[in-house]
């Protein structure tokens, strides 16, 4: 039997495996399997995903670029963690750029896409738990931006969503009955403005929606002191 080709072929295989590891680890992080501040050890990830350290390192680089993890040279990688001040700053950025991204997106959204947003609003109201709600909420908001054709703004918003994912989970768990009602009402108002193609109203609703999350989190500094978000 001839020896397996080295070099480019091996690098292609590592790249494919690295993408698989990145996909699976990304899903685990977004679903709260690894709380903020958790250290990620390459040898443990390699064993878990059945890969060598080369694709694991590639996966970690990918997830760092997406805002999900933080790496320190010659030290290691950790699930991204924010202080209260950092989270407030990121939410203030979101308040300003997500309405703009929505404005770019709305003229290009088809009726079928808007119908799907309406369905997602109903599914969020019927969500059985926090994780199901978060998945639907992410699909709703990122889906509302799907019409935008941007090379910078869209990826920036998605990175901000990744970085603040754990804190949306904490926010959702803080909501009482009134808070839940307001949250769903805002989703209904937002999709109604999108259907009417009223960019000004949609921007106003979205800004207030994000701002309310920021203010609620700012009132609960204990969220940022917890070691375990699960």
Automatic annotation (TrEMBL):
Pfam families in UniProt: FCD, GntR
Protein name, per record: GntR family transcriptional regulator
InterPro entries xref list: GntR_C, TF_FadR/GntR_C, Tscrpt_reg_HTH_GntR, WH-like_DNA-bd_sf, WH_DNA-bd_sf
GO molecular function, one term: DNA binding
Top-level taxon: Bacteria
Keywords for this protein: DNA-binding, Transcription, Transcription regulation
Annotated ranges, domain HTH gntR-type: 15-82
């Amino acid at each position: 039997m001839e020896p397996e080709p080295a070099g480019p072929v091996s690098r292609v295989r590592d790249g494919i495996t690295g993408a698989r590891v990145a996909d699976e680890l990304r899903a685990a992080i977004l679903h709260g399997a690894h709380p903020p501040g958790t250290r990620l050890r390459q040898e443990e990830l390699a064993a878990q995903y059945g890969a060598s350290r080369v694709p694991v390192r590639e996966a970690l680089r990918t997830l760092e670029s997406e805002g999900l993890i933080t790496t320190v040279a010659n030290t290691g990688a950790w699930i991204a963690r924010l202080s209260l001040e950092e989270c407030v700053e990121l939410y203030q950025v979101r308040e300003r750029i997500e309405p703009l991204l929505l404005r770019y997106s709305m003229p290009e959204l088809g009726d079928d896409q808007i119908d799907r947003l309406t369905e997602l609003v109903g599914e969020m109201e019927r969500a059985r738990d926090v994780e199901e709600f978060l998945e639907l909420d992410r699909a709703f908001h990122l889906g509302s931006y799907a019409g935008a054709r941007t090379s910078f703004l869209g990826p920036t918003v998605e990175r901000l969503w990744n970085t603040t994912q754990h804190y949306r989970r904490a926010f959702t768990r803080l909501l009482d009955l009134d808070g839940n009602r307001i949250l769903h009402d805002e989703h209904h108002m937002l999709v109604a403005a999108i259907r009417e193609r009223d960019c000004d109203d949609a921007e106003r609703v979205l800004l207030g929606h994000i701002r309310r999350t920021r203010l609620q989190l700012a009132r609960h500094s204990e969220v940022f002191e917890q070691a375990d978000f699960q």
